[in-house]
Batch of 3 targets.
Target 1
Amino acid sequence: MSGKNGSLSDVDYAALANLRYRIRKFRQRSTKAAEKLGLSPQQHQALLAIKGLGSGEQMSVSTLAARLFVPAASAAELTRSLEGRGYVTIEVKQRRRTIVRLTDKAEEILRRLTPAHLYEIREMAPELMLSLRVLQDHRRMEVAAWMQ
């Protein structure tokens, strides 16, 4: 259990380290798969963010920036790069709102990349969930001990 004053236990550190290891492992494999098809990791993330926004919603450059945790100028540059490679179209709406849409070429590359990513996540899910469960259960034990 955590010690006094919010100090962390070895269980906390181990679970957090394992969780972050699994995430890094997934990201590394994802990067290699995207690069094999000629995409940078950020380009792949952008295409996936656009595709995953939800039906009926439109991806703006500012929303893409927020989803990727990058400045709006970087998201605009990224979308221009994707447009130049034929992966997106850019449409300027009223009030200068820029809408980004996937092309058929982007849809095809996502169809090629996504199954492997989903398979890997599903394979890693038990380990990820175990790490999260340890962190969650450990926190519950701390709260229960504090309440007594």
Note: The beta strands are 59-60, 88-92, 98-102.
Target 2
Amino acid sequence: MDNDVSAGSGITTVVGRLALGITLLAFGLGYTEVIDGVSAADAVSIAQYVGGIALFVAGLMALRDRDAANGTAFVTLGALWFTWAVSAEGSADAAGLFLSLFALVVLSLTLAGGDQLGQGAYGLFFVALVLMAVADFADSGGLAKVGGWFAVAAGAVAWYAATAALAHWPTALPRRAAGRGVTATG
């Protein structure tokens, strides 16, 4: 990694966010059932290989580059995606429990700080997991679809964050002055 590049903006972060974004898009679109014949079960291979293995390896690379925040996030998320993929055939209550535990990890990542896009992606993903867990416990297909849309939004934000880093697009929202009539001096 180039010394001029701050931790968290290197290629491993881009790869990790792309892997997370693609996995969330596939996972979320499967839950929304917006594409005829595509369900969450169809996202299992993507979750296992892209969200599981590729994200885990990106996390290891980030840890090697001394990017502890993204390394920890990607390794943990990779392990959880892989586990979700290989255990997708369990009962609804077991799935709800797993998604609840997954949500706790993502909540920790959301509250850990970092850049706005990363926190936004994790925050949306957290809401998606909570909605999907409740949907599994309550056997509510409608709530699962809403959770799917939150996962799609999280995937889009993660994808944008990775693409923005590569394309040099804006990655932070501009800040406003404190109130009306307040101007910055400089």
Note: Confidence is low (pLDDT under 50) at residues 1-8.
Target 3
Amino acid sequence: MKTDNANASLLAYFQQQQTPPGWFDLLNVMIDGMVRNVGEAESLPFLRQMGEAMADRTPLPVSETVGELEAHINAQLRVFNWGCIDMIVSENGLAFRHQGIPVARDKALQTRWCSAFCAILEGLYSRWLRGQGGDSGLVFTRESLYSVSDVVFRYAKPQ
């Protein structure tokens, strides 16, 4: 039981580091307003574009291996304070398990924020991978959610 309290305290600490009051609240208001004005599905392409623009501002060093690419991505995610990834290579493409995604402090907004942030990450990773010589025929999409802070993405041919 003590471990659960320790984990909850640790998660609360990291969440506070990732979501500073004021700036993160403003981002939540902006995302919520955008979704309310145009709808969630209609806002996702814009959010992906914002991720691509973020990648253009923060290009990755050239990577020779998947391990090196993972290290470069994680180094940049540390700068952003956006968690970390594990990359898994398979015959179906690359899977990216992104853990420690910033989470809205307001539980009622967590699902919407996660969806919006995942769209931003789709744009960010897509552009970074193209910058590494990735195939423009491959797409980077959210595959599954373990939680609002633990998401699996896939970089593969569209099905």
Note: Residues 110-131 form the longest helix (22 residues).
